[in-house]
Specification:
Number of strands: 5
Helix content: 55-70%
Distance between the termini: 41 Å
Strand content: 5-15%
Low-confidence stretches: none
Largest sheet: 3 strands, antiparallel
Structural class: alpha+beta
Strand order of the largest sheet: 2-1-3
């Protein structure tokens, strides 16, 4: 919208051209940008449009509406980007967990006595299935 105002202000400068008027030997009146013998230079001024208060208020209201819309779109884009980054982080964490399960190392946890208790193959397979399901649901 601001670009349109700038163009509207600069339009008279861009549109300023020298116009000439002359009459030929047959008495016909001619206009052109190139002067001819006996041509008279004509001063052409652009029409100035005056805006009333209602029009100015309507333009200001429209500008406020578009500003609010642009702010809303920027906020929505930032929210989408933040959700996408969070999703990517969760997916990377799930893939790391799956890689550690598939690494072939013996995985364990410590019980209440502080002793190592190794996971059984069934427990590891169950964990793999759960991680695969979450990857398929959230990261595909």
């Amino acid at each position: 919208m601001r670009l349109w105002w700038l163009l509207l202000i600069l339009l008279p400068l861009l549109a300023s051209a020298e116009i000439y008027r002359w009459t030929d030997a047959k008495g016909n009146l001619h206009y052109g940008e190139q002067p001819s013998a006996g041509a008279q230079k004509i001063d052409v001024r652009p029409q100035v449009i005056e805006r009333d208060a209602a029009t100015l208020e309507r333009e200001a209201r429209t500008e406020r509406f578009y500003d609010a819309r642009r702010e809303e779109q920027a906020k929505n884009a930032a929210d989408v980007q933040q959700r996408q980054a969070s999703r990517n982080q969760r997916c990377a964490e799930l893939r790391r967990s799956l890689n550690s399960l598939d690494s072939g190392k013996k995985l364990y946890y410590r019980d209440s006595k502080g002793e190592r208790v190794f996971y059984s193959d069934e427990q590891l397979n169950t964990a793999r299935r759960k991680i695969d399901a979450r990857l398929a649901a959230d990261c595909s």
